[in-house]
Fold each of these.
Amino acid sequence: MLRWGIIGCGKIANHFANDLKLVAGHHLQAVASRSAEKADAFATEHQASSAYGSYISLLEDSEVDVVYIATPHNSHMEWAITGMQHGKHVLCEKPLAVNSSQAEAMVAASRTYKVFLMEALWSRFNPSIKAAKQKCDEGELGEILHLYSEFSFQSNHPATSRLLNIDLAGGALLDVGIYPVFLSYLLMGYPEDIKVVAELGPTGVDVQASISLRYAASQASLFCGLKCDVENHSVISGTKGRIIIPQRWHEAQGYIEKKVGSEDVIHTLPTLGRGYTYEIEEVGNCISKGWLESPDWSHKDSLQVGRILDELRRQVGLVYPFE
Ligand SMILES: NC(=O)c1ccc[n+]([C@@H]2O[C@H](COP(=O)([O-])OP(=O)(O)OC[C@H]3O[C@@H](n4cnc5c(N)ncnc54)[C@H](OP(=O)(O)O)[C@@H]3O)[C@@H](O)[C@H]2O)c1
C-alpha cells in the first residue's frame, strides 16, 4: 500500500484525490492545507487518515510515503525539495518548476536523497496519447511533418487568481501552454528553433501566445491562452495520414485515425476516472522498482520542456518578480 500525502487542498487536489480512490494499492494517508479547517474538510471528504494545518507537519509524518504537490507554480520547488529532504517521494504538479534552474535543483535533490521525483504531466499517461505516440513511433503516419496543438479557455478569474497572478508565476505559457509544448516534445523531441508571439495582460503575465517550433523536417504550430475558448484539439500530420485528438485533447477519451487510402478509424479509449489514475499507477510502479524517475516522463523530459518554456518566456519578456 502506497501512502499518499497531498499538499494544497485546491481544485486539482480534489480531482486527484477522487482518482486516487480508483487505483488499488494506493491510500490517501494525509492532507495539508494552510488552513486546518480546510484540511479537515478535505480529509473528511476524501477519507484521509490525517489532516494538517501546515505543509511541514505533513512532511514530518512518517506514515506518508509519497507527496503530491498541488500548490501554485512559485512554490513547487520549495515543497518538493523540502519533501525530498524529509525522505518523501514526490509527484509535483506541472510545470515541475517555474524555470529550468529550479527544476535542476529539484532533480539534484531526488538524486541526493534517493527518492522518486516526477512532474505530474498526466497527459503523458493518457491511453489515447500513448496510443498516438506509439503509432507515430511505429511509422503508421509515415514521416511526421506537422503538429497543430492548442489549449486555451476563456478565463473569468480575477487578477489576483493563481492563473493571472505574476507573484504566483501565473500566465498562459506555464499553466496551459506546457501541454502543447509537451506534445510537440513527446512526438518530435527538442526543437531546432523556437519562436513565439504573445500578449501580456494587465497583471504582467502572458494571456495568449502563438508558438512555432521548427524541427529538421517538421514543424509545430501551438497556441495557448486564457482569453478565449478554442477547439482544444491536436492534429498530427504525416506523409501517410493524420491523427486527430479531439477536445479536450490533453485529457483525451479517444482519437481519430485518417490514413491515406483507408476509411477513418475512430478509437474510443475512455479514461478510468478523470485520467489522473494513470500517473498514480506510474508513480506506484516506479517506486516499487526503486526507480528515482519514470522512464516515460523522466527528469530529462521535464528539464527539456522547462528549457523550451524558459526560451518562450525570454522571447516574451516575462520575468517573474522573484526570479
Ligand atoms: N494536471 C491538471 O489537470 C491540472 C489542472 C489544473 C491545475 N494544475 C496545476 O495544479 C497546481 C494547482 O492548481 P489548482 O488549479 O489546483 O489551483 P488552486 O485551486 O488555486 O489550488 C492551489 C492550492 O495551493 C495552495 N496554495 C499555497 N499557497 C498559495 C497561494 N499563495 N495562493 C493560492 N493558493 C496557495 C492552496 O491550498 P491550501 O489553501 O489548502 O493551502 C490552494 O488551494 C498548479 O501547478 C497547476 O498548474 C494541474
Amino acid sequence: MRRGTCRTAASVAVAAAAVLTALTAMAADGPIAPPAPLPATVIAIKAGRLLDVRTGQYRSDVYITVEQGRITALGASAPAGAHIVDLSSKVVMPGIIDVHVHTGDDLFDHSAATRMRVSAAQSALNGAYKVHQYLMHGVTTLRDAGETNVYYPQFALRDSIAKGLIEGPRMLCAGMLISVSGGHSDDDTTAVDFGLPKRPNIADTVDELRVAVRRDLKYGADWIKLMASGGVSDLYSDFRSQELSEEQMVAAVELAHRAGRRVMAHAEGTAGIRAAVRAGVDSIEHGTMLDEESATMMAAKGIWLVPTLATFQIEPGTAAGMDAVMLRKLRDILQYQQPAFALALKHHLNIAFGDDDEAQRVGPEFAALVKGGMTPLAAVQAATVNGARLLGLESETGAIETGKSADIIAVDADPLADIGAMKQVSFVMAAGRIISQP
Ligand SMILES: [Zn+2]
C-alpha cells in the first residue's frame, strides 16, 4: 500500500511540474489561448442528400463548406485543399435545437428527495455529462428550462461551454424554477417540524416574485421560468390547479422584457395556461390541458408551445425512484395530453421541440410528435427553424445556410419517410467542430 502511495505521489509531482511548465510557457507568450481553438483547415462536407428544413426538399450531392465554425458556401464542388468529410450515403440536416432540458437533474434518482441531495457542484457535473450525451444525439443548441438548485449550476455550465473549457451544445438558460410555497417547485419535502428556510425560488406575493426575477437577472438568466400550475414530479402540487397568480406573472413578464429577456411558463392545467397566456409569457411548456379558449389566445398572440410529449409517456419501470404519488399523477395526466395536442395542431400554434428529460428521449420525442399528429417535416421544423425563432437565434442556427454557425448532423435514413431515423444520428458537427462521425 505504502509503495503504491509513493508511486502515486511521485506521478502527481511529475504531472504538477508539467502543468507548471506549460502555464509558465503560456504566461510568457501572453494570455492563455482558448483550450480548443477551431480547426484552421477548411472543411467540405459532401452531403448525399441535404434536407432544406424550410421546404422539405432534398438536394443531392451538395458540398457544405465550413470555415472557422461557419458555413461559407453550399455548392456542387469543394474548394481546393479542403478536408473532405464524406457523407454521401447520409441525410444531412441542421443540428437539433432542444428547448426544454434540465441539465442538473440526477440521472438515477427522480424521487422528491433528490432535490435536497444534489449540490450545485454535483448538478454542474451532471450537466457536463448530459451535455455530452445531447451532442452525441445531435443536439447542438439547448435551452436549460430552469434548475432546482438555486445556485445556478446551469450558468456555470453554459459559460464554460462558451469559453471552450468543456465541449457542449450552445446553451441558453432559465434561472430558478419560480414557484409558490407548496407548489410544483417547492423542494422542501421535510415535515413541518423540520422545515427548511424559505428558498429564493419561492414567491408567494408579487413583491417576492420581483425579487426572485431580479436575482435571476442579476446572475445571468437568459430566460425566466415560472410555475404557472402544479405538476407531476413533486409530492404536493395538483397539476390541474393554477399556482403563481396572474398578477405575479404580469410582473415577471414586465421585468424580464424590460431587461431584454423572455419568459417561459410551466403550465399543465387549463387555468394556469390561461393566466400565463393573458400575462403575456413567451412560451407555454407542456400545455397538457390546453383548451379552445387558451389555444385561440395563444394563436392570436403568437405564444409558443413546447409540448414535451414523450416524458409523460414513460414506462413507470424506467422512472428511477419516482414516488408513488408522482406515478399516480403521471398516469392521471396522460388522458389530457392527446386532445390538447390535437387542439394545438388545429390552431396552428408555433411549436418548438423539447424533451424535458435526458438525451435518450430525443428520438422518442420526435416519434411522439408524429404519433400525435404532426407531419415528420413539422416535427423536424419544431426542432430546427422553430427552436431558433423561439430562442432568438434565427440568424445564427436552425438551418444549413451560408453565414450560419456550422451546426450540422447526419442520419442514416430519410426522416421525412420514417421519423424513427432521428434516433440514429451518425455525424455531429457543433459550431464547426466535428463531435462524432461514421
Ligand atoms: Zn421541465
